[in-house]
Amino acid sequence: MSAATYCQLEAQGVGVRIAGRAIVQNASCSLAAGQISAIIGPNGAGKSTLLRCLAGLQAHSGSVQLQGEEVARIAPRLRARRISYLAQHDGGSALDDLRVEDIVLLGRLPHQGLLASAQAGDAAAVEAAISSAGCQHLRGRLFGQLSGGERQKVLLARALAVQAAALLMDEPLNHLDPPHQADWLLLARDLAAAGHIVVAVLHDVNYALRADHLLIVAGGQLVHQGSTQDAATHRAIEAVFQQRLRIVRCEERWLALPQ
User: Fold this and answer.
1) Which residue, 3, 40, 9, is CA-closest to 223?
2) pTM
3) C-alpha span between 27 and 40 (Å, rounded)
4) Cα separation of 238 and 246, whole Å?
C-alpha cells in the first residue's frame, strides 16, 4: 500500500484562544497524502495559527491526528521526524553566522542521537534537499549574506532535509521571484506524488488554485474546504474576499482576477 493511500492529517474541533480572543474556532479538516492542500483567507484570518496547530506547535482544544495518532502525544523528537514545518519568518540574526550547508543540516537533528555527529544518511539527505530547493550555488555562503529569496530557498531545503511524511509551509512563496515560485509548485507536486502530505498557507490565490484541495479561513473559522476545481470553492473564494476578485477559466486553468 502506498503512503498516499493511508497517510492522513486530521483536525477535529480545533480551537485556539489567545488573550481571551478566539483565533481559531472549531476547525475540522482531513488532509490526505498525494495532494497539495492550500490554506487561504484574508489577513488575520487565523491561517498561520491553524497551520501551527496541524504541526503540533500551537496549544489548542480539539484533536489533531497524524495517521490516527494524536499529534500532541507524539514525543517531540519523533514528531519532528514525521512533520516538517517551514515558518513564515526566517529566524532573524540567529542564523546569520551559519553557512547554508550547516543550516540545511539542522533539518537532520531529529534523526540524530544526543551529541551524535552527522552520518552518511544525513549527508545524502542534505544533498538531496539542497538540490531540490535549488540552492547548490549558495552552500558555502553565510546566511546573513543572502537575499530574502535566497534565504527562503535555504529554509525550504532545511525543511526538506527532515524527509518527513508531512511538510507544512507558511507562506513558502515569500520573497521568491516568479520562476522560483513556479519551481516551488513543481517541487510540491513531486512531494505529493511521492506520497507526502503537503500543506501550505498561501496569499497568492492563483497559486492556491493550482493546489488540489483548498481550505478557506475567515474570522478564525474554516468556512469552506473542497477541490480547487469545484464551482462552490470558487464562489467561496469570491465571497471571503468580499467579491473584490472573481474566478475565471483561462486556458484550462482557474484564475483569480481583481474586480
Assistant:
1) 40
2) 0.91
3) 14
4) 6
- 242: amino acid identity, one letter: Q
4 pLDDT higher than 50: no
Identify the band that residue 209 occupies on the pLDDT scale cut at 50, 70 and 90. Answer: very high
**Structure confidence at residue 251 (pLDDT):** 72
User: Which tens digits make up the pLDDT trace of 70-94?
Assistant: 999 999 999 999 999 999 876 667 8
For residues 155 and 237, what is the distance between their CA atoms, to the nearest angstrom? 29
Three-state DSSP class for residue 249? strand
Which DSSP state fits 98? S
Judge whether 189 and 36 are in contact, CB under 8 Å.
Answer: yes
Among residues 215, 157, 147, the alpha carbon closest in space to that of 183 is found at: 157
Scan for cell 534565504, then name that residue.
Answer: 151
Distance separating alpha carbons of residues 60 and 76, to the nearest angstrom: 16
Q: Which of 131, 213, 239, 133 is nearest to 176 (CA)?
A: 133
70 pairs with which residues across the strands? 65
